[in-house]
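Appendix B. Chain record.
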Amino acid sequence: MILLLPRCVSFALVLVTLGQVAAPSARAAEPEPSGAGKSAQPEPAGTAAARTVVVTENNTAGSSETPVERIRSGEEFYFKVKWGPLGTAGDVAVSAQDEVLEGLPQTRIKVVTASRGLVRTLYAFDGEAESVIDPRDGRLLMAKATTRSRKQNTSMTLFFDYAANEADYTDNVRPERSTHIPLPDGQPMEFITALIQARGWNPQPGDTRVINVIFDNHIYPLTLHAMGYEKIATATAGEQEALLVIPKMETNPRGIFKRGGSIRVWLARDEQRLPVRFEVKVAVGTAVGLLTRYRPPDEPAGTGTKADEPAETSREPEKAADNRQADG
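Structure tokens predicted for this chain:
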């Protein structure tokens, strides 16, 4: 059992990095998705296929809604991931920064994850994810992610073409899996920022919000349920009142949801509604992520609320080619 615990923590880190809803150990048992393949340059041999989840907020076609509120430029979130008997098991850093590429504004969001402590000794894991959004309308333009462990590496890239209403998915490890994914109405969003964005929804107990999850070239509905307020242990304020939000796959459950697992997120009951805690539960136990430091968009780097410094993050993701896709 103790050998399974690091994989539980690593799965939590994979979930944050790639937004997956299927555990890495279960991938081989799931059928390959259908779809036309396309050529891509493979990475070094001996690596496994990348899988990703992107979510889209369920909007009405043709509606004139305000842009989806993403992580704002300058914001930083640092989470420490813990596992009961092992203590600190990993860390997660999420940040956003406005920039200009070829005269066009964009916001780059980065997620860096790594296993730590005894878990890293037993099961080393590093993950890097990057996405680029158009700050003028909040649309996701590009997403990429890589993970590295002793037994498995993954690499994927998504470019979004709103004129063609599809996403160009490239598996850089198994190019035969590369394909074009039809997009539903709404704005695509990667999983971790979708959960953080729940604060912009300003949910109240009993509220629900349906989002669409693109998983393995398919789209599945995921419902966010605002359950109620609870007093929970946090890293920065001791016990704190927070709203519990539970994502559920209520139709044709897949991956972690099919296997009885669950994901829970708590949003602080204050004006900021920060995600102060999250939990990923699988068969062998629960990994807990605590927000240890937050920097708001209007504060200089190195400041902000903190309980303790996060462990050193892994290497900075390599810059992606961010040619903007045609507007729809």
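Further analysis of this model is presented in Appendix C.
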